[in-house]
Amino acid sequence: MPCRACGDAVTQFLDLGRQPLSDAFRSPDDVSDEFWLHLKAVVCHGCHVVQLADPVPVERMFHEEYPFRTSSSRRMSSHFAATAERLVAGLAAPDPFVVEIGSNDGTMLATIADRGIRHLGIDPAANMVGEALARKVNARAEWFDAVTADRVRDEFGPADVVYAANTMCHIPDLPGVFTGLETLLADDGIVVFEDPYLGDVLRLGSFDQIYDEHFYLFSATSVARIAELHGFALVDVEHLEVHGGELRYTLARDGRTPSPAVGALIAQEGRERTHELPRLAAFAAEVADRRDRLRDVLDGERAAGRSVAGYAATAKSATVLNYCGIGPELLPVVYDTTPEKQGRLTPGSHIPVEPFPQDLADYPDTFLLFAWNHAEEILAKEQQFVDRGGRWIRYVPDVRLG
Ligand code: JHZ
């Protein structure tokens, strides 16, 4: 398949094998066939964007039972409150209009709504739209595309800001999104979006950022090129520490001068050969090595008779569990705070997901930390586990037990 963003040729550099849909947590009595895809990553020779090799079924991924909730992390909730304040501070129009694509449970827009600013959230997950509406956020269960963009502009007028967090990289039809943005955005409006950064994935070896929902892995270089194809310019870029390292991109089409950060990061990506095959092949070799070492650590814990449980049934954990061949025999349970995941089985690997034990005495000897991107928040609240001798297994930025 050619590049979904620009149509140029692509080359494969990573094969993560057969994978289920990362957020398809199954009920234990569900006997229907599970959906599988072959998870391979490729890089484009034209725009340099990293993407999945094969199509992903978007309607099966994002629907009225989508289980991920933005507010499931305290740190992310404060990140989005701060983001909303920044967006509000930058609004100059007399009666501004803010649109969020992939608004989920309305965590970010709640602050915008509180300020009395006109806004609209658009998200295909009707259950999450329901939660957003319950917190007085104006949201609709729809896909964002050219047709939706037309309708929204007719109804509300042009948008001064279109924002998206952990959403742009989820939409294979990126050209369709850009057509919508061309329609919806005010002439002097901005598009702001943030997604996991290829540079961080390579640096940390965080291969679990690659799964069905993360169709693209962006960089400053690739976003600048893709934006240009649609008459937009990348005018600012900011590194974010959240979710294991992300970039926040700002696009505009009004000829404003890009900030120095844009050129600096593109130059750095060039120096680090971020999009070149030898660098990507080295990453793939590191991933295979990490798989073997992670399995060794789990085998060691089992041989020593120490109990191990997974910490957080993240979407990312699907890649780890299925690529490393970890099932209930090595990891009998994964604990998670999300009610919709509890009582279900992890996708593909079929490990029971349960609520965290109430009593510390029921904690395992060792936790395998799947939500490594929230380590600070989690380690702070699990200090007692460590105090009584509990240990963590990590696999980002390297395999480590301690
Ligand atoms: P977290 C999701 O990925 C899916 P996931 C999506 N594709 C994406 O891009 C990112 O979010 C943004 C649990 N948890 O945030 C709750 C605990 O149990 O790393 C959730 O099930 N205890 C849209 O799933 C899961 O982790 C905790 O203390 O990889 C969320 O994991 C915390 C903090 C979380 O995203």
Automatic annotation (TrEMBL):
Q: Which InterPro entries does UniProt cross-reference here?
A: Methyltransf_Zn-bd_dom_put, Methyltransf_Zn-bd_dom_put_sf, MeTrfase_14, SAM-dependent_MTases_sf
GO-annotated molecular function: methyltransferase activity
SUPFAM superfamilies tied to this protein? S-adenosyl-L-methionine-dependent methyltransferases
Keywords in alphabetical order: Methyltransferase, Transferase
- The residues covered by the C-methyltransferase domain are 242-397
Q: Which GO terms describe its biological process?
A: methylation
* Residue ranges of every copy of the Methyltransferase putative zinc binding domain listed in the record: 3-62
PANTHER family referenced in this protein's UniProt entry, alphabetically? BLL5978 PROTEIN, TRANS-ACONITATE 2-METHYLTRANSFERASE-RELATED
Protein name as annotated = Class I SAM-dependent methyltransferase
- Organism equals Micromonospora craniellae
